[in-house]
Amino acid sequence: MFAKELIPSDTASLQATKISAFVTQTGGGTSHAALIARAKGIPYVASVDMEIIKNAKGKCVIVDGLTGDIIVNPSNLTLEKYERLRTRLTQQYQQLENDRHLCAETLDGYPLSLYANVNTASDIDSVHHHGAQGIGLFRSEFLFMQDPTLFFDEERQYLIYHQMLKRAKGLPLTFRVLDLGGDKCFDIFEEMAKEPNPVLGCRGIRFLLRRTDVFKTQLRAILRAGHGYALRILFPLISDIHEFHEVKRIIKEAKEELKARHISYHEQPLLGCMLEVPSAVLIADTLAQESDFLALGTNDLIQYTLGIDRSNPGMSDFYYPTHPGVIRMIKMTILEAKRFQKPVTICGEIASNPLFTPLLIGLGVQNFSCAPRFIPIIKRTVRRLSLLDCCDIAEHILTLRTSAEIASYLAERLHGSAGQTTFKCDFEEV
Ligand code: PEP
Ligand code: MG
């Protein structure tokens, strides 16, 4: 599919079996549209000059999501090369899947938990298939992209959430409440219409605290669905403890409303804050004290720490997941959460990238959450590492001063260099 731009609802509604690739003129690598395409295994190449490929219509086109190459009218030789590559990647992936029954533990027996990020109700089935230990992040807003009337329909939301909990078959399911705004704007809400800068505007919890009607409808549906299940609710883009106090007050009201209607609901769900802006990390101690669990949303944490729009392909050169500042923030969050004995899950895209696995383990991360199809590769990576090596790697990285040095050190450790303990990861899609 060729398009000027992809919005998250486009990728959310399409199936990998029907769409072989996306090629767009705009759109960043960690935009929501891109990460959904990635979760579904659909190659996606952005920042393409449509003028150059305007004659591609009706022709055979190869889209190489690994290199970003687009080949129009490939020769037979090129076609065969890509057929071989596709067969090899499929075989490698199948081998990884054979390990799904093994536990995620390092060579020296340090156990980790691997959870799944899901974006649709039907993704829950792949959670079981890929051997995840639960759902660390359900991005609930994607449900509403096909049908915005659902925002105001508690009954239908309740039925969907209840179905999901049933399909999770006892695995923990973390409902992230609506994270609207930014690149997920809805025309029906005037709060997010014509914002001068949507990413810094009425997004995540800010929107929900302004539209308590929408927020409470979702909360009531979740609380009802969660009755009798282990219920976890996560709140996006918290930047001040006051917002979390407001969240708790609104939950109390939602419960009272259900009680008045004589409807049963979950009395004591676990409540978590997403740390996605630097201010949240700087008050991680307070947030840890007042929540049941924390989630580090590094996609946004990188965006807001570096001040770089994650959806802008023109700026993607400046989007540094290995920035020393970001790594220090992860470390700080883990230390504060440990101090108050609260679990932290890392659920940004770096959790699905084996390059980061040893660093994250060395920093003390114990819970990873990523798209289900990346769980096998992360499990394989974990099983080839030792905690001791991971701590060494993290310690060394904390002495490095640039994103580039850190990135090349991680790559060196992943792919190997003379005289160093390395770990091998034999899946090419890294
Ligand atoms: C994140 O920001 O890292 C995250 C997991 O949330 P999302 O990608 O949906 O913004
Ligand atoms: Mg986020």
Ligand inventory reads: phosphoenolpyruvate, magnesium ion
Strand content: 5-15%
Number of helices: 16
Lateral strand order in the biggest sheet = 6-7-8-9-10-11-12-13
Principal-axis shape: globular
Q: Please give the largest β-sheet.
A: 8 strands, parallel, barrel
Q: Which ranges are low-confidence, i.e. pLDDT below 50, for 5 or more consecutive residues?
A: none
Helix content: 40-55%
Secondary-structure class? alpha/beta
Alpha-carbon distance between the two ends: 24 Å
Q: Using DSSP, what is the number of strands? A: 13
List SSEs in N-to-C order.
EHEHEEEHEHEHEHHEHEHHEHHEHEHHH
Supply database-style keywords:
binds magnesium ion, 8-stranded parallel barrel, 12% strand, binds phosphoenolpyruvate, 430 residues, single chain, alpha/beta
Question: How would you describe the overall organization of this protein?
Answer:
- With 430 residues, the chain is of the alpha/beta class.
- It has helices spanning 8-13, 32-40, 76-97, 124-129, 154-167, 205-210, 212-225, 241-260, 278-282, 284-290, 298-306, 324-339, 357-362, 375-383, 387-397, 403-415; strands at 2-3, 22-24, 44-45, 61-63, 70-72, 113-118, 135-139, 173-176, 231-235, 270-275, 293-296, 344-346, 367-370.
- Helix 8 (241-260) links the parallel strand 9 and strand 10.
- The model has no long low-confidence stretch (mean pLDDT 91).
